[in-house]
Amino acid sequence: MSIPSEDQRFGLARRVTLPRPLPLDGGGVLTPVEIGYETYGTLNADGSNAILITHALTGDQHVASVHPITGKPGWWTRMVGPGRPIDPARHFIVCANVIGSCMGSSGPATIDPATGTPWAMRFPVITLRDMVRAQAMLLDHLGVGTLQAVIGGSMGGMQVLEWAATFPDRVRSVVVIASAARHSAQNIAFHEVGRQAIMADPNWQGGCYYGTGDTPAAGLAVARMAAHITYLSEAGLTEKFGRRLQARDAKSFGFDADFQVESYLRHQGISFVERFDANSYLYITRAMDYFDLAEEHGGRLANAFQGTRTRFCVVSFDTDWLYPTAESRMIVHALNAAGAAVSFVELSSPFGHDAFLLDVPELNRVVDGFIRADES
């Protein structure tokens, strides 16, 4: 295996315009296709060490390097980096911003070449399978044929499942974390609350707010606050905040953030609007809601994996009520019915759905062991 250079070891941020249009599930094509991505490590001589990491709804390609807007560390430095389960000394790591997003990939904020103005709501409706096809085109550009693994949590896990179903011959193993094969009515309902909050903001302007100096920041902040509640657990919120009040004049009651949990949620909303685009939130949440892997394969989930040689690892968390363990078991049952090689574990954590992003050493051990089994 070749030794990565210092810049390759810690990540290279890039943006590329792919050489061909992207056919879309909804009909028509997207052109041009721009992808923002990062790589870490070096592809070895036989091309066998490439790992694709797929990000969640509000994630991006900055998986293990400093975010250019917030200045914060990458969102998965607990999993990716020197000495971590996904290690640039052993792996060629790729993480791409999904199409429809706002961190370098084609989305509502990018320029429509036909008009010379941002796409806004003229941007075509996209699906998770469209996102995965765009990632496959990026890997073609990078000279990556077969992936050692595709790994992701939440919406990233949905992309992992789509990779296994759409490109089974390109994936040796996959890790699906805290995810599902389709959205429940409850999932769709929470997303709709967020979308309505954005569209009810007068500054949304039908999606044509680019360049006006006014963005639907208030609506997007509320959408983030509502969604963030679903990423946590009741036990975690109670332990962290309980019913504790802010340190303030006890007589100063009203509609300010009296409770610590209120202040926390407001901070989450305000900080989110600094790095994310409201229209992208609309498009990506809709793509997640449309996702139904069984429906894509004749109404039977096992059909998506029939005859696959890919190895699967499925992980859930006991306090995740957004994508509860029952959803992971449904995936495992389908894989068993398809005769696939699958490992499954439910991990205990107080952090709810966000556990896959937080300090859960057991998750690192599971992922590390699963990846190393392919390397032995």
From TrEMBL:
Pathway annotation from the record: Amino-acid biosynthesis; L-methionine biosynthesis via de novo pathway; O-acetyl-L-homoserine from L-homoserine: step 1/1
Catalytic activity annotation: L-homoserine + acetyl-CoA = O-acetyl-L-homoserine + CoA
GO molecular function, one term: homoserine O-acetyltransferase activity
Keywords attached to this entry: Acyltransferase, Amino-acid biosynthesis, Cytoplasm, Methionine biosynthesis, Transferase
Binding residue positions for substrate: 224, 354
SUPFAM superfamilies, per database record: alpha/beta-Hydrolases (SSF53474)
Pfam families found in the cross-reference section: Abhydrolase_1
Catalytic residues as annotated in Swiss-Prot or TrEMBL: 154 (nucleophile), 320, 353
Top-level taxonomic group: Bacteria
Alphabetized InterPro entries for the sequence: AB_hydrolase_1, AB_hydrolase_fold, HAT_MetX-like
Residue ranges constituting the AB hydrolase-1 domain according to the UniProt record: 50-358
GO BP: any one term: methionine biosynthetic process
EC number assigned by the record: 2.3.1.31
GO-annotated cellular components: cytoplasm
Compartment(s) of residence: Cytoplasm
Quaternary context: Homodimer.
Function statement: Transfers an acetyl group from acetyl-CoA to L-homoserine, forming acetyl-L-homoserine.
Family statement: Belongs to the AB hydrolase superfamily. MetX family.
Name the UniProt record assigns to this protein: Homoserine O-acetyltransferase
Source organism of the structure: Alterirhizorhabdus solaris
Upper taxonomic lineage: Bacteria, Pseudomonadati, Pseudomonadota, Alphaproteobacteria, Sphingomonadales
Annotated gene: metXA
